[in-house]
Design brief:
single chain, alpha+beta, ten-stranded mixed sheet, six-stranded antiparallel sheet, 30 strands, about 25% helix, globular, disordered N terminus
Length: about 800
C-alpha cells in the first residue's frame, strides 16, 4: 500500500510538472509575436488539466486571429472599361462627384496602369502578381494549355482576400468576377477558383465578362439567384444594395473587425444599360463630336495640372473618322450613344457613392482605405466604327448599319437593347492618349484614373502623385497599410513573391523616388516595356482589326521618353536605335521570367476551346441528356449546336387544361433558340441576333398526358453561320417544317444560359417571356440534345 501511494504521488508530480510545462509553453506562445508568414496562423499548444470538477478548473484563453491593431477597413472599387478621362477630376466631360470628392480629400495617381483588358487586370489587382504568373494572359474565355495562359489561377498566388481573411478580416465581393476558367463554371465545379474559395466569405455577382444589367444571370456564392419580377430592376442598384446591407450587418455584429470589400460593377462595360433619367440629362452635351471633345479634355487636364505643360494630343488611329466628315445621320446616332454612356458612367459613380456613404454611416470612413480604380483598362473601342445596337453582332461577324440603328434611338440603353458605342468616343475618353482597351502598348489602353482615400493614413488633401504604379501594386499597399507581411506559405502551398511594389511610400512624400521602375505589358500581341521613364512598344493589332498588322517577329517598335512626353506623341526609335534594342531585349527577359512566352495573338480563335486546346466538358460528346430543373448552363459547358445539324427530343407530361412554357432554351433576346409550348401548341423558335426570327409551330394543342416532342434541324453545311431546314414532330408524326435562313456561327450570348423547363434572364420567345413567367406548366422527365 505504501509503495502504491508513493507511485501515485510520483505520477501526480510528473503530471503536474508536465502540466506546468505545457502551461508555460502556452503562455510563452501567447506572449510572443504571432507568425503571420505562414497562413493559416497556427494556434499555440492547448494546455490540459487534471481537475475533476469543471467548477474548480480555469479555462485557458481561446486563441483568436485578429488583425494588427488599427488595421484599416479596405474598399477596392474596380470600374469596367473606363479610360483616363473617364472622370471629371481627370478632365473628362462626365460629372463624377464621388470620385472627385474623394480625390479632393485624398490622392490622385496620374501614372497608374492596368494590363489593358478585364481578367488579367482583375487577377493582378487582387494577387499582387503579374497576370501571366496568374495564368491569365488574356480574358478567361481564351485560355490555352501554355503556362501563363491556362486561365487557372494557381494556389501559389494566394489572393489578397484570402490573406486578409486568414488574418482576421471579414471579406466580401460584389459584381463582376471574370477570373474563373469557363469550363469550371457549372454545378460540377470544381469551385476552387470561384470567389468563395478565393478568400471571400460572401459573393454576389456574375461570373463572366459582362452581363445584361436589366436581366443578369447572377450567383449568391455558388447558387444562382432568381430575378425579382420588377420591370425597374437594374443590377447596378441591386449589387449596391447587397453591398450596403452586408457591410452594415458586419459592422453591427463586429464593429471592431475590419472588412475587405471588392466592389466591381459590370459598368461601364457593354452593354451600356442605364435608365432613361440618367441618359436624358446628357442630351446635346456631345454634339461637338469626339475630335472637339478630345481637345476640350486636354485643355482641362492642362489647366488643372493633371498633365505636364506642353502635353499634346498624338494623332488618333487612322480608322477613326474625323467628326466633320460624318453624315448627319451618323452624328445623330453617335451622339445618342455617347449620351447613354455618359449616363452609365454617372450612375455608376452615384452607386459607388452610396457605398461610401454607408461606410461613413458606420463611423468608420476615416480608417477605411479606399482605392477607386475607375477602369480595368482604357475605354473600349470594341463598338467599332458605328457602334452597335446589339454587341452580339460583333462576335458573330455581322456589321450593323447606321440606317438600321437610327430607328432604335429612343430605346438605346433600355432592356430592348444590348448596345455599344462608336470607337471614336473611346479614343476621346482616353485622352490625351491615342489608343484604347486591348492595346497594352499604349497608355490609352493601360492608364486609368485612380484616387486613394484614407484620412487616418494620408495627411495630404487633394494631392497628386506622378510615380509609376500598376495594378499589381495595390495588394502590397493594402498589406503594408494593415501591418501585415506577405506570406511565404498559404494553406500549405509555398507562395510566389508578389511582383508589385507598395505605393505607401508616396502617400506622405510627393517627391519620393519611384520604386516601381520596370514593368512589361502584353495582351494579344500588343506589347511594351516601361523602364525608368522609357517606354518601348509595338502596336500589333487594333481592337477593330480582324488580323494582326505583322507577324510577331516583324512588328515595328517605337520608343518614347515618358519623362518628357506624357502622351506618347514623339517616337524616338529612329534617333535612338540602340536604346530601343536594349528595351526590346529587356522585354524578352521580363516576358520569359513572367511566363508571357510564347505570345498568342489570336483573340477570336482562342474563344473556340478545340482550337485553343483547353479543356471542354463536351469535348467528343455528341449527345447531352438533361431534365427539368437543369438550368444556368453557359455556352462553355453546354453541347455546341452551332454550325451543324441537331436533334432535340423531349418527353413532356402535359397537365389537364394544356401545357405552356419553355421546354429547353439557349440564349435570349439578342440571339438564341427555344423548344416550347404556347397555349398547348408545340413550337420551335430561332432568334438570329434579335434581327431575324423564325418560328416553326404545330397546328393543334397537345392533349393531356405524356408526349414525345422532337425537333430536327438539317444544317446546309459548307461553312459557318448557314441556315437549314427545321422539322417538328409530335409522337413521331411531323406536324410542321420550315426554313431557318441563317444561324449564329460563334456565340449566342456572353451571359445568357441554356435552361430546361424555364428561360432565365431575357426571353428567346417574347410571347413566352422569361424567368418565372416562362416556366413549363407540366413536367419534363427527359430532354436530349444530339448533334452530328
Amino acid at each position: 500500500m505504501k509503495h502504491r501511494t508513493q507511485r501515485l504521488l510520483k505520477a501526480e508530480v510528473r503530471a503536474a510538472l508536465a502540466l506546468s510545462i505545457v502551461v508555460a509553453s502556452f503562455n510563452a506562445a501567447s506572449a510572443r509575436e504571432i507568425d503571420r508568414s505562414v497562413l493559416p496562423i497556427m494556434p499555440p499548444p492547448v494546455p490540459y488539466t487534471l481537475d475533476l470538477d469543471v467548477r474548480e478548473a480555469t479555462a485557458p484563453p481561446l486563441f483568436k486571429v485578429t488583425p494588427p491593431e488599427g488595421a484599416p477597413n479596405v474598399l477596392i472599387v474596380l470600374v469596367d472599361d473606363l479610360g483616363f478621362a473617364g472622370t471629371s477630376a481627370f478632365g473628362g466631360p462626365v460629372t463624377t462627384p464621388t470620385f472627385d470628392g474623394l480625390a479632393a480629400e485624398g490622392l490622385r495617381f496620374v501614372d497608374f496602369h492596368t494590363t489593358a483588358v478585364c481578367s488579367p487586370t482583375r487577377v493582378a489587382i487582387k494577387s499582387g502578381r503579374n497576370h501571366h504568373i496568374n495564368n491569365m494572359g488574356g480574358i478567361s474565355e481564351t485560355g490555352t494549355p501554355f503556362p501563363g495562359n491556362t486561365t487557372q489561377v494557381p494556389d501559389s498566388v494566394a489572393p489578397l482576400a484570402e490573406i486578409l481573411r486568414l488574418n482576421g478580416y471579414s471579406t466580401a465581393a460584389f459584381g463582376k468576377w471574370h477570373e474563373t476558367a469557363p469550363w469550371e463554371i457549372s454545378v460540377s465545379g470544381p469551385h476552387d477558383r470561384w470567389p468563395t474559395r478565393q478568400g471571400f466569405d460572401e459573393f454576389y455577382g456574375f461570373m463572366g465578362g459582362e452581363t445584361n444589367q436589366w436581366a443578369p444571370f447572377i450567383y449568391s456564392g455558388v447558387t444562382p439567384v432568381e430575378l425579382p419580377d420588377d420591370p425597374e430592376y437594374h443590377f447596378l442598384e441591386d449589387m449596391t444594395d447587397k453591398t450596403i446591407s452586408w457591410l452594415k450587418y458586419q459592422k453591427a455584429l463586429t464593429p471592431e473587425k475590419p472588412f475587405f470589400i471588392y466592389y466591381a460593377p459590370g459598368a461601364t462595360h457593354a452593354p451600356h444599360h442605364v435608365p432613361q433619367e440618367w441618359s436624358a440629362r446628357w442630351k446635346g452635351t456631345f454634339d461637338q463630336g469626339w475630335d472637339a471633345m478630345r481637345e476640350e479634355i486636354l485643355a482641362r487636364q492642362l489647366a488643372s495640372g493633371l498633365v505636364p505643360e506642353g502635353t499634346v494630343l498624338p494623332p488618333k488611329p487612322e480608322a477613326i473618322p474625323d467628326w466633320d466628315s460624318l453624315t448627319a445621320d451618323e452624328k445623330t446616332l453617335f451622339t445618342r450613344q455617347a449620351e447613354v454612356f455618359a449616363g452609365f458612367v454617372e450612375m455608376t459613380d452615384h452607386e459607388i457613392g452610396r457605398v461610401v456613404e454607408a461606410i461613413d454611416s458606420t463611423g468608420q470612413l476615416d480608417n477605411t482605405l479606399i482605392f477607386l480604380v475607375y477602369g480595368d483598362n482604357g475605354t473600349s473601342a470594341e463598338g467599332g466604327r458605328n457602334g452597335m445596337f446589339s454587341e452580339m453582332t460583333y462576335f458573330n461577324g455581322v456589321e450593323e448599319q447606321v440606317a438600321d440603328m437610327l430607328p432604335k434611338l429612343d430605346l438605346w440603353g433600355g432592356p430592348e437593347t444590348y448596345p455599344h458605342m462608336a470607337a471614336g468616343w473611346a479614343v476621346a475618353l482616353n485622352a490625351p492618349f491615342a489608343w484604347t482597351k486591348q492595346v497594352a502598348s499604349d497608355f490609352g489602353g493601360t492608364k486609368v484614373g485612380v484616387t486613394v482615400h484614407w484620412p487616418a493614413g494620408i495627411a495630404a488633401k487633394g494631392g497628386q502623385r506622378d510615380q509609376f504604379a500598376h495594378v499589381i501594386d495595390v495588394a502590397p499597399t493594402v498589406l503594408e497599410a494593415a501591418g501585415l507581411p506577405q506570406p511565404n506559405m498559404v494553406n500549405g502551398v509555398p507562395q510566389i513573391p508578389m511582383d508589385g511594389v507598395s505605393m505607401l511610400y508616396t502617400f506622405d512624400d510627393p517627391q519620393a523616388e519611384e520604386r516601381h521602375t520596370t514593368q512589361y505589358f502584353e495582351i494579344f500581341g500588343n506589347r511594351a516595356l516601361y523602364h525608368e521613364g522609357w517606354w518601348a512598344r509595338t502596336i500589333h493589332k487594333a481592337p477593330w482589326e480582324a488580323k494582326p498588322r505583322h507577324a510577331l517577329a516583324d512588328d515595328v517598335w517605337e520608343l518614347y521618353d515618358t519623362s518628357k512626353d506624357f502622351s506618347l506623341a514623339n517616337d524616338l526609335s529612329e534617333e535612338m536605335p540602340e536604346k530601343l534594342a536594349e528595351m526590346k531585349t529587356m522585354f524578352m527577359v521580363e516576358a520569359g521570367r513572367n511566363r508571357a512566352l510564347p505570345i498568342d495573338d489570336r483573340p477570336i480563335e482562342r474563344v473556340n476551346a478545340a482550337v485553343a486546346g483547353r479543356p471542354d466538358l463536351m469535348a467528343g460528346r455528341t449527345t447531352l441528356t438533361l431534365a427539368e430543373g437543369m438550368t444556368g448552363m453557359s455556352e462553355n459547358v453546354f453541347i455546341n449546336i452551332k454550325n451543324r445539324s441537331k436533334t432535340i427530343t423531349a418527353t413532356v407530361d402535359v397537365p389537364e387544361g394544356g401545357g405552356h412554357g419553355t421546354i429547353i432554351a439557349q440564349g435570349g433576346r439578342f440571339g438564341g433558340w427555344s423548344l416550347y409550348v404556347e397555349n398547348g401548341v408545340p413550337a420551335y423558335h430561332y432568334n438570329f441576333l434579335g434581327l431575324e426570327r423564325t418560328t416553326i409551330a404545330g397546328t393543334g394543342p397537345l392533349s393531356a398526358g405524356s408526349h414525345e416532342i422532337r425537333f430536327d434541324f438539317a444544317y446546309d453545311g459548307d461553312g459557318m453561320g448557314k441556315g437549314g431546314i427545321g422539322s417538328l414532330f409530335v409522337d413521331g408524326v411531323q406536324v410542321a417544317s420550315g426554313r431557318i435562313p441563317r444561324t449564329q456561327p460563334t456565340i449566342f450570348s456572353a451571359d445568357e444560359t441554356a435552361d430546361v423547363g424555364i428561360d432565365l434572364a431575357t426571353p428567346v420567345v417574347e410571347s413566352i417571356g422569361a424567368e418565372a413567367r416562362s416556366r413549363f406548366t407540366g413536367a419534363i422527365p427527359v430532354v436530349t440534345v444530339a448533334v452530328e
